[in-house]
Specification:
mainly beta; three-stranded parallel sheet; 13 strands; 9% helix; 33% strand
Length: 162
Amino acid sequence: MKLEGSCHCGRVRFSCEAYAPVPYMHCYCSICRKTAGGGGFAINLGAHAESLKVEGREHLSVYQAELRDEDGDTRTSSGQRHFCRHCGSALWLYDPTWPELVHPHASAIDTPLPEAPERVHIMLDSKPAWVPVPHGPQDAHFPEYPSESLREWHARHRLLDA
């Protein structure tokens, strides 16, 4: 599925071919909450990195989060969160650990996206008390990351290349 997206101010526009185009994962980690605003729909679309086309690349900035381990040591995440340096819109994540993939933020996509048959709430151990989490028959909950990958979730729901 071809996805087209943009930032809020319109200086950055992008497109890519998504093999996993259904937004289903709501992330409550501090990185997603603070860089993409609130909880939810952060990095849960899968696309082919070689298909990414960007207009306005000169308006992009990249953020790489500092991660703290249990011992208090920090390391820089390999994930590169691309955003518009003018309006701050979170656009996509690229991680050279998986060079064939790019993960657009569903919130930046302008193309109508399919509705998910299930919502997966992750990183609930990081969720602040003020954030409500839906608890319905289509809601799955995980204290951290689920063992099922993005591709596996889409395959289980027969949604690859939806």
